[in-house]
Design brief:
491 residues, alpha/beta, Rossmann fold, N-(1-d-carboxylethyl)-l-norvaline Dehydrogenase, domain 2, 2 domains, four-stranded mixed β-sheet, 21 helices, 14 strands, NAD(P)-bd_dom_sf, 6PGD_dom2, oxidoreductase
Length: 491
């Protein structure tokens, strides 16, 4: 192997020939996109699509400026700036590993309590898209009603301090105010999170927050800005010692590499008020049927992740591929998907729910991807409400089976009690962990205590079929164990 090389602009030409590097002049790139939330997914997905265009010699005026509104991201900012905002992507294909250095990001803004630098950058007319990956639960949506949570303390703060907001959405509004006052058109707001109608939800949050302090500005944003919906898909594990070692094994000294599966999908509504890159030339799909793609992915892949990750945590199965090797978990997953989820999912061009299930089954089983059950189970309070409960409601309305979905909720409740069946502790893994754990402990003897969480279930506890199935499964899990419940359902 060639000498281990630090990841820097000046050292790109010294990297091993096996590592693909930018062929474009990064110093000549100019910004067009601000992306808030520089996690692994963004760098393996949206940044890669743009990098691919740049490799083709186009979109050089669309480079990404990274941003964050969380001080916890400061160490990652330091790591990326120290390596000129370059990222090594390591593709984990069962047939072999390959590495590529992505250079589409050219800066990372200071992280400030008042978001002044972020606001100033977004107010620059060169910025035509502001994109976000801030997690499914980061949009201040009431999980039961789907409406804007105006009373959240963050929203109340930004209402009272519109020029010094603490949230990404408040910062977007402050920048849009400056653009309007300067006679500059708005940018497009682009959510890249796993939410059904993510663009519509982003519009709801931005416009509703603006209306709290400046109704005229809210009207201007609503009438002039655009918020395209999109479906995003790529399995990207967290970076740890194994991923750092993988980068070094490729001859690259990268402090923040990203591993990912050998699959990507991006379906985008073509609604950009200030222009956009030609992402379709890099494999993305522009479509007016985004909602159908979203529904298939969220209800089958994202919900499927929750089905197996909660069971994996309870049974001390550490990885998603390990869950797919576990007969009880895999059988549960397959039956719920076929019998209870797929009937509520429409086909999209080129793929049926049945063929999509085969695809995600193979992707989950990819042993080259060390994706942990813990990572996938994170923030169940957002993911169950967004990924599983909509299908459960559809099943109750249609009179179709919901027994496996009720078992999924019982497994989540058991996981939130905070111990595995082998006696080890499950560390807090949700922004609302204390509330969830208290309900889970009470539900051990009274399953209805879990369903009484109105902020999660709303009126679902009033549906006798669901409440009875949940009660039966949770009692069985506590009495006989999770595997017995999984086996009973799959049989």
């Amino acid at each position: 192997m060639d000498e281990l090389m630090p990841l820097r602009n000046a050292k790109l030409g010294c990297l091993p020939d096996s590592v693909s590097v930018p062929v474009y002049d990064r110093k000549a790139l100019t910004p067009g996109i601000v992306h808030i939330g520089l996690g692994n997914f963004h760098r393996a997905h949206q940044a890669w699509y743009l990098h691919r265009l740049m490799q083709y010699g186009i979109a050089h005026d669309w480079a990404i400026i990274g941003a964050s509104v969380r001080q916890a991201d400061a160490p990652q900012r330091d790591r990326l700036l120290a390596q000129d905002c370059l990222t090594t992507l390591i593709e984990l294909d069962p047939s072999g590993i390959s590495a590529e250095v992505v250079g589409s990001m050219i800066g990372y803004l200071p992280i400030e309590d008042d978001n002044a630098a972020l606001i100033a950058q977004m107010a620059d007319p060169a910025i035509r898209i502001v994109a976000l990956t801030v997690t499914e639960g980061g949009y201040y949506v009431d999980p039961v009603t789907g409406g804007f949570d105006a009373m959240h303390p963050d929203m109340q703060h930004d209402k009272a301090h519109p020029d010094t907001p603490r949230t990404a959405f408040g910062a977007m509004i402050a920048a849009l105010r400056q653009r309007r006052d300067a006679g500059i058109g708005p940018f497009a707001g682009q959510s890249c999170d796993n939410l059904q109608g993510n663009g519509a939800i982003l519009r709801q949050t931005v416009v509703s927050l603006a209306r709290l302090s400046d109704p005229a500005l809210a009207d201007w944003i609503d009438q002039n800005a655009s918020f395209p919906n999109a479906m995003v898909d790529c399995i990207v594990p967290a970076t740890g010692p194994a991923e750092l070692a993988l980068a070094r094994a490729q001859g690259v000294d990268d402090a923040a590499p990203v591993a990912h599966e050998n699959y990507r999908q991006w379906v985008i509504e073509d609604d950009f008020c200030a222009g956009r890159p030609d992402w379709d030339q890099a494999g993305a799909t522009f479509s007016n049927a985004v909602h159908r793609y979203e529904a298939m992915k969220i209800r089958m892949l994202n919900a499927g992740h929750q089905l197996i990750a909660n069971a994996g945590e309870i049974l001390s199965v550490p990885t998603i591929s390990g869950c797919m090797e576990h007969a009880g978990i895999a059988g549960f997953f397959a039956r719920v998907e076929r019998a209870e989820i797929a009937p509520h999912v429409d086909a999209v061009p080129g793929i049926t729910p049945e063929s999509y299930l085969a695809l995600i089954t193979a992707r989950f089983a990819n042993t080259a991807i060390v994706d942990t059950s813990r990572r996938v189970a994170f923030d169940g309070s957002s993911r169950h409400t967004g990924f599983i409960l909509p299908t459960l409601r559809d099943g109750l309305a249609a009179g179709t089976p919901i027994d496996g979905l009720a078992l999924a909720e019982a497994l989540w409740a058991r996981m939130c009690e905070g111990t595995r069946e082998d006696g080890t502790e499950i560390a807090p893994n949700d922004p609302h962990w204390d509330t969830l754990q208290a309900a889970a402990k009470a539900a051990r003897d009274n399953p209805g205590a879990w369903l009484s969480q109105q902020q999660v279930y709303g009126d679902l506890a009033d549906h006798p079929a669901f409440a009875a199935a949940f009660d039966r499964w949770l009692r069985m899990i506590w009495q006989d164990g999770a595997e017995a419940a999984l086996t009973a359902y799959a049989a």
